[in-house]
Amino acid sequence: MSRAVDRFAAAAADLGVELRVTRYPTGTRTAREAAEAVGCELAQIVKSLVFVTGGRVVVALVSGADRVDTGRLGAAAGAGDARQARAEEVAEATGFSIGGVPPFGHARRLETFLDRRLLDFEEVWAAAGAPDACFPIAPGELARLAEASVVDVAAGAVSGPAAS
Ligand code: 5CA
Predict the structure, then answer these.
(1) Is the C-beta atom of 72 inside 6 A of ligand 1?
(2) φ, ψ for residue 50 (rounded to 5)?
(3) What is the per-residue pLDDT across 23-67, written as a single tens digit (0 to 9) for each?
(4) Distance from the CA of 35 to the center of ligand 1, in angstroms?
(5) How far is the CA of 47 from the centre of ligand 1 (A)?
(6) Is the model's pTM score more than 0.85?
(7) How far apart are CA 122 and CA 28, in angstroms?
(8) What is the C-alpha separation between 105 and 100, in angstroms, rounded?
(9) Which of 48, 153, 19, 139 is nearest to 1 (CA)?
(10) How remote is the CA of residue 49 from the centroid of ligand 1, in Å?
C-alpha cells in the first residue's frame, strides 16, 4: 500500500471504522476513471473538492456527475463566493495530492459540506488517499465520519470532458 493510503486507513481506524480499500491498476485519478474502474455510475463517485472561502479552506463532497456552485458553497460556509484551491493549497490543507484526496482524515480538521444528492444512493465510492485507491461507503455514514453539513451545493450535471 502507498504511504498515503496507509495514512488514510489509519485516520479511518482512529474513527473506529475499517474501510474496504481497493487499488485499481487502471487508475482512479478522476471521477470518470474511478467509475470505470469500480464499475459504478459516475454519479456514485464522490469528488472531494477543496475550496477557499472567507479566508478558510473547506471541503465539498459532491457527486461525480455534478459541479459545485461556488456561490452556494460560500453561502453555506457563511462567507462570500468560494474559489477552488490551488494544487499546493490542497496538499497543504489535506495532506493528500489532487486525484487521491479522501473525504475525511485530512492533515487538519477542515469544515466539510456534503451535497444532498449523494444521499440518493445506497453506496458511493470515494478516494482513499491515492489516485488508484477507492472505498465504498453509505453516504449517511460518510456524512457522519466527515462531520459534514448536508447542503445543496451541486450546480447540475456535467457532460463531456469537463467531468473529473
Ligand atoms: N480519485 C478521484 C475520484 S474519487 C478524485 O479524486 N476525483 S476529484 O474530482 O475529487 O479530484 C479531482 C479534482 O481535482 C478535479 O475535479 C478538479 O476539480 C481538481 N483539480 C484537478 N487539477 C487541479 C489543479 N491543478 N488545481 C486545483 N484543482 C485541481
Answers:
(1) no
(2) -105, 130
(3) 999 999 999 999 999 999 999 999 999 999 999 999 999 999 999
(4) 14
(5) 7
(6) yes
(7) 21
(8) 12
(9) 19
(10) 7
Q: What torsion, rounded to 10 degrees, do the Cα atoms 33, 107, 114, 131 define?
A: 0
- Contact indicator for 113, 149 with CB cutoff of 8 Å: yes
Mean pLDDT over residues 73-98, rounded?
97
For residues 36-68, b (16+ Cβ closer than 10 Å) or e, as one string? bbbebebbbbbbbbbbbbeeebbbbbbbbbbbb
The pLDDT score that the predictor gives to residue 2 is 85
**Cβ of 30 below 6 Å from ligand 1:** yes
HEC string for the chain: CCHHHHHHHHHHHHCCCCCCCEECCCCCCCHHHHHHHHCCCHHHEEEEEEEEECCEEEEEEEECCEEECHHHHHHHCCCCCCEECCHHHHHHHHCCCCCCCCCCCCCCCCEEEEEHHHHHCCCEEEECCCCCEEEEECHHHHHHHCCCEEECCEEEECCHHHCC
